[in-house]
Amino acid sequence: MKKRILFAAALCLAALSLISCGKSKKPAGNLPAYLDENRPLEERVEDALSRMTVEEKVALTHAHSKFSSAGVPRLGIPEVWCTDGPHGIRAEVLWDEWEQAGWTSDSCTAFPALTALAASWDPELARLYGTVIGEEARYRKKDVLLGPGVNIYRTPLCGRNFEYMGEDPYLSGQMVVPYVQGVQTNNVAACVKHYALNNQETDRFFYNVTIDDRALYEIYLPAFRAAVQEGGAWAIMGSYNLYKGQWNCHNQYLLNDILKGEWGFDGVVISDWGGVHDTDQAITNGLDMEFGTWTNGLTMGKTNAYDNYFLAEPYLEKIRSGAVGTTELDEKARRILRLIFRTNMNPEHKTGKFTSPEHYAAARKIGSEGIVLLKNEGGLLPIRSDVKKIVVVGENAVKMMTVGGGSSSLKAQHEISPLDGIREAFPQAEVVFERGYVGDAGGEYNGVSTGQDLRESRSAAKLIADAVAAAQAADCVIYIGGLNKSEGQDAEGADRTALGLPYGQDAVIEALAAANPKLVVVNISGNAVAMPWVDKVPAIVQDWYLGSEAGHSLADVLSGAVNPSGKLPFTFPVALLDGPVRTPEQFPGVPGDDRRPIFSDVLVPILEENYSEGIYVGYRWFEKQQIAPLFPFGHGLSYTTFAYGEPKVSKSTMTAGGTVTVSVPVTNSGSVAGAEVVQFYVADPECSVDRPVKELKGFSKVFLAPGDTKTVSVTLDKSALSFFDAGKHAWVAEPGRFEVLVGSSSADIRGQVSLELR
Ligand code: BGC
Prior knowledge:
binds beta-D-glucopyranose, 3 domains, alpha/beta, Immunoglobulin-like, globular, 6-stranded mixed beta sheet, disordered N terminus
């Protein structure tokens, strides 16, 4: 009897281990195909689809809470859970409210903003970023990460530029691919956003973009295409605005023709929250999943109105009445099932990690590699380790920046402020803090509070006087200001109104420059700012919103523990109107004749916006117009120097299907180890169409010890020489001579080689 019990127990244990051990040990024969992890994904999808009712399929296509949609409970197919994105995993909110759910286990690692990642110009760091944020998402049982964002930096006023990867389609394309791949190694879908032409926040639901096809294909689409075709993104988010008179969450041209047609996207199109406006178009024009409609908090409407979603009861009614068939429904359900089998039901059963030391180390590294040294006269930086007294001035030295900015706001487990980082990096020094100005004393967003009390009673004049008095006696003054995540600055939902620094900061900086020549200005922002004092300040550092490890990353660079190697992912103009976007017709758009009911029965005029600058965005514009920027695209200094040798081309003639390799030896000619981002731009001096002076087509970040030389190379094919011919609707490279310019920034070209396309 005892033996029999033991035997039965052993059998139970064996059975249990079969259940828990995953794929190869499951008794595949008895399982329905969709549950059999050994079967190909498409077979699982088709099998699940064949078992579902119309009602179950429709239920897949729309949200049933703020961030989730139903699975198929009857079949054991789980819900789809989404999360913002893109800088960390958003804290849990209530079922249908934006308010906090009050969990105590959802304080995440806050990673640097995507502008910082782009400024690292290091695709391997993008892979690391994707991998660690994907691990956090998976640990928190999220299937879709709402990010990354790759909308092109068109105007420095755009409130969400900090969430994107700069002004150049090639750079953002190179950075988004490994990010997406890194995320998805965790069985979490990257949802690349906001597709497309969403380059402003002003009236984001109401503007219709007119743009020529060449600019669309050359500037605004390449990063999305790279994310889909090279990165293999499993999801993409439609944007709020309109293109060709159709909202982009159900836009025939962008979604059906280009994304699913030309690019062969097999993933899920997810609406932005509240971006769906019409059942018929939502059915036919490429949307797969509807989120955020009519939910309170974001738009008007009632709570728990999920049955009223455009793709819920209204969709079912149309099917029942015979007004529409089920072909589109099957296609949507198929894509959503594919997403579920790629994520939650992926045979790999990844479990993720959360707030691990490796995640903080990654955040710190990405942050410090993204910081850009804009100016460093007299070698003021790095700050000497024997410095006695450092005066730190500016609200951004202490203000917690992980809270705020819109949907990317985070509840971080910890956030090291710049002041804390500096104190830690210079233990021998007396570090004094002076506020200097009052920006935003609030520290709350969406129910998450920083816990900081930044209220201040001193007048602006007194704050400056106190800062100046402290600065006079310092060995070194570090001013840390810039923008913040408050509305109207670097934040979702509104754009900036001016290029200048807010809160009277220019006066503080001028006063400090007059008080002490050893002044370092650290600008924290996700956007270019005006610097009227640029000639009066010896050292300027472009910092970003760097998340949990912000203070450590900055102090690493200020102290020289890390030699800066970031390069600007967008141009800093001297003045706003130096840039390409100059008229209200270009931004933010002017009311046209089209009026539509949006979120209510009231007719709202749609703004017509013309991207009339065409392909001339960022450095393409500044170079074409010969307008000198404040700091050019690709600029960034180091504590060492790099000497470039002669660039060489592997063969001087490229055939249509061939490639050439351009290489250049680069030497660290200074005395400390450092990294240089070698940039390769292509110019097409003779062409039947107008082309930019040059365009980035390759780059490589090389790490060099003092005195070391490495040869850096990139391989170019015909795509690097092509322009988009709208008439032919094709990429065209015209035979003839091309120049490859090799440099340290777009304005610092160190050599060039010619090649001939046959
Ligand atoms: C934003 C998206 C975000 C979504 C969910 C929208 O308002 O535009 O980027 O992912 O909200 O929070």
